Amino acid sequence: MDEGLQIPERAAFLRVRHGATRESSALVRNFVGHADEVTGCTVTPDGQRVISASNDQTLKVWDLDSGRLLATFEGHADRVTACVVTPNGHRVVSASDDRTLKAWDLESGRPVATFEGHASRVTACAVAPDGRRVVSASRDKTLKVWDFQRGCA
Predict the structure, then answer these.
(1) C-alpha span between 64 and 67 (Å, rounded)
(2) Please, are residues 78 and 57 in contact by the beta-carbon 8 Å criterion?
(3) Which of 147, 146, 141, 150 is nearest to 122 (CA)?
(4) Residue 26 falls within a domain, yes or no?
């Protein structure tokens, strides 16, 4: 190919080379659509959807098999740092740099509760296996346990 293009020897650095890829051969698909870094993800218990958290202040819900974007949840005032789905698959909880956790109805996309009380950014969240409690971790050097059912009543 170089001979056909008549590239001078001193311009050899311009030659097209096979680029090495860092993607594993196990990669099935990419989910593209956030406007900023993706900071967390969780899969629904039925394995049908994946929810992603992002520095763009949103959560996105994707079809796991097709990669199609199903919904975008907006409502945090700062970066969303983590997310987790409840064991029954009906709600998703998100943690944010806005110092709150939000619970969202997965079908409607509406927030059903906001948990406030941290003095700094909320960096992680988890739901107990019984779905009754949510635990959050914060840069305020605390973990907090929330009564999920009372907060979403």
Answers:
(1) 5
(2) yes
(3) 141
(4) no
- At residue 96, does pLDDT exceed 50? yes
Sign of CA dihedral 43, 37, 111, 31: negative
Half-sphere exposure of 85 (CA within 13 A, CB side): 21
Q: Is the pLDDT of residue 152 over 90?
A: no
22: left (phi over 0), alpha (psi -120 to 50) or beta: alpha
Domain count of the fold of the chain: 1
| Domain housing 113 | 34-151
Q: Coil, strand, or helix at residue 42?
A: strand
Give first-to-last CA distance, the chain, whole Å: 69
What's the confidence (pLDDT) of residue 2? Answer: 47
Tokens of 6: 């008549």
Q: Using an 8 Å Cβ cutoff, are 106 and 87 in contact?
A: no
